[in-house]
Amino acid sequence: MHRSRQTHAPISNPAPSAALGTQQLRHVTWSKAWAVCGVLLGICGALRPVAAAPEQPNIIFIMVDDLGKDWISCYGAEGIQTPHIDHLAANGMRFHNAWSMPQCTPTRVTLLTGQYPWRTGWVNHWDVPRWGVGYFDWRSYTTFASILQSAGYATAIAGKWQINDFRLEPNALAHHGFDEWCVWTGFETGNPASRERYADPYIHTRRGSQTRPGAFGPDVYCDFLIDFLGRHKDQPALLYFPMALTHGPLVPTPSEPDVRRPTDRFRAMVRYTDQLVGRLTQAVRRLDLAQRTILIFTTDNGTTGRLRGTIGGVRPRGGKASKFEGGVCQPLIVHGPGRVPPGETDALTDLSDWLPTFAEWAGVPLPERRTIDGKSLAPLLAGRTSDSARDWILAMGHGPARLDARGVRGQNDYADRVLRDKRYKVWLDKAPQITALYDLSEDPLERRNLLTSPASAHRAALAKFRAILAHQPDRDARPRYTPRPPNAWDRKPTD
């Protein structure tokens, strides 16, 4: 747990438009779009394209798989150097209180939709191609890609998706708002080739799915994005890069093919991740796009348990699938020369905040008929404020999903979750009830449960979180999707 003061200063006397509140901004931008385009939002939240404004930045969002702060040297990680990521941090804004969900699928859906898992139903790890039945249905959710596409952005994704089955939905990514894609298919049941995300990767593009003999998957994904950026340098572009690295299997990299021990292979995979970040940032500079580009670096959850590193001689408590800080408090760096003031911040944020942030950067309203849980980080990242609009953040998710006659559901009707503010953190179980209270300022490893403490500050903290929870349902939603005919690889209902 790092505690740092805010080191960047807010810009004084912002322009009147910068001082507009979120609701005012939505009204103004939508009024302009209506006057120009004469269109309304559809029931699924789709937006019609509007002319791209010159101030719209390129957005590059990098999300590494299964990597916590304990392997990023600018966060104090030992036994590793990540110079390219460190360079972004030294010249950008580095967050200390940025949360993910504890595991892959809830993280990715939260990021894409700006909605919490209890609202979307994606509370579990659910590898769609491997298990079948449920899928991320474009008719039920609105992604940040579709919002930016409506604002005139060229949109691309490369790396890991894993929440649609491309055998059944070859154009799913187009429906979700991406113009082009180059993604690992996510291990399709009955298709051995689709296991491969690294050596000889099995990759899906607009032309279909195929093996790339002799290629290293992460190189293919990165090169695709660089090519896309070069072809679209004259318009605003979104590059979403959910990396395959550093998720297992632990493999040699092109830079270090001779390593054998698991930890050494993982360390090599981290170093290669850093090289890819460097390759992408160098391409941005080579294309003379640095002043027009905001690059975000983060990870989807903490490090896999047996591979956890150390910070200051201490191994973080918790990793992937854990709701301790080591599992959910991730590196987050935002780099934008001339746009994002460099420094460190203890501002609270979680992954639901990026959809409204992107919408504000693009100058378009949030989708109608969608309740967005996130809060825009744009004022903080512009230096107009010294803190986020957050007083609390949330992380939740557990185990594989299950099937019943109605489709996909969580293991429990109320998934375990944690909430925190800048000082205190509470844990909830499936009852639901608060089972633990920790003072992170004094107890960053969460060892002293203050649930029964009589101290007035602890009682007040519990009252605050109970009031927050009172506005959330005590039963999680199910994932929404249009049922489709059964397939041979689909899992059967458990009850």
Oligomer: single chain
CATH class: Alpha Beta
The CATH architecture: 3-Layer(aba) Sandwich
Number of helices: 13
How many angstroms separate the termini?
42 Å
CATH superfamily: Alkaline Phosphatase, subunit A
Structural class: alpha/beta
The residue fraction in helices comes out at 25-40%
- What is the succession of H and E elements? HEHEHHHHEHEEEHEHEHEEHHEEEEEEH
Strand order of the largest sheet: 6-5-4-3-7-1-8-9-2-10
What is this structure, in a nutshell?
With 495 residues, the protein is of the alpha/beta class. The chain has 13 helices and 16 strands.
Structure description:
This protein is of the alpha/beta class. It has one domain (30-394): 3-Layer(aba) Sandwich (Alkaline Phosphatase, subunit A). The protein has 13 helices and 16 strands. The strands form 3 sheets. The protein has a 10-stranded mixed β-sheet with strand order 6-5-4-3-7-1-8-9-2-10, with helices on both faces. A 4-stranded antiparallel β-sheet has the order 11-14-15-16, with helices on one face. A hairpin with a 2-residue loop joins strand 12 and strand 13 (407-409). Helix 8 runs parallel beside helix 9. The protein is globular. It starts with 21 loop residues before the first helix and ends in a 26-residue tail after the last helix. The model is unreliable at 1-54 (pLDDT under 50).
